[in-house]
Please model this.
Amino acid sequence: MNNKVDLTPEAAVRAVMRDILGLSEEQVAEFTAETELFGALPELDSMAVAGLLTELEDRLDIMIEDDEVDGELFETFGNLVAFAEMKVTE
Amino acid sequence: MTSVPAFVDYEFAVRRELCLCTASGSSRRVLLVPPLFDEMNRMRKMLVDVMHALELEDVGSYLPDLPGTNESLAAPEQITLSDWQRAIQACAQQHAISHVASFRGGALAVAAMPEASHWIFSPVKGATILRTMMRTRVAADREAGRNTSLAELTEEAAAGPIELAGNMLGPALFAQLNGADIPYMARQRIVRLASDSKPADGQIPGSALWLRAEPDDDPTLSTAIARDIAGWIGQ
Model:
């Protein structure tokens, strides 16, 4: 078995976005803190967001509560990364 | 050239359930256990591509409908995880298959077969599947102007059948899934995507089709899966 490699929160968010949107490594590398997500990316519907939250929990070993999730969280890539960084230090 | 997959069946709980099948004449055969719920729909095309690719490797494959899913006439809200485990066991016995390849949540449906050889792709805990489905329901409720929480849905699911992301789950299935961990088999090979950092016996290229908004295929992934399974079965 290979050893588990710990991901930084930003790398985890980037990897999940890549998986959910079916993007290439290069495409997702272009995401910046200002990149708009929910509303700007049609693939990111509410079902995809549900999968995204569970994947982040799984990959970063965190738990995300209902009341922590609001529309603002998915406005930009930067918001999501900041949230993930905050959760792993809790 | 590969043949057109045919439907055969297997008997479970006085019903005949369908099973898609290729090259049943081959002495090397594998049972493919599909992912659960929406992940099954998103990966079915990819799994049928795996069947074609396996045929080119001279491996016959069987892709059964789990009772209560796909073409099955069993009532979904009455199905339990134990039913799925016994159905997979029955299908393998009736078609004399000793190798089982399960995908994602499908790995939870092979627990009744400790004696078989298991190839397991990107397995997932039952609680993780339920969490995503409940979140989808919370989002749908919110769009309809209702506020629900994961805790409320968990309570509702214990009391009676619950609709989550377009699926009806009875209390027994919900409870069993919620406690279902990835089984550990005596003879197993765990395979994950190259991009996945979790422990694995093998890694293959491809994309996580189960996370996509729409069903899709991925020839890189289906070919890599078929080659890995064929190598694992051996000659």
The two ends of chain A are 30 Å apart (CA to CA).
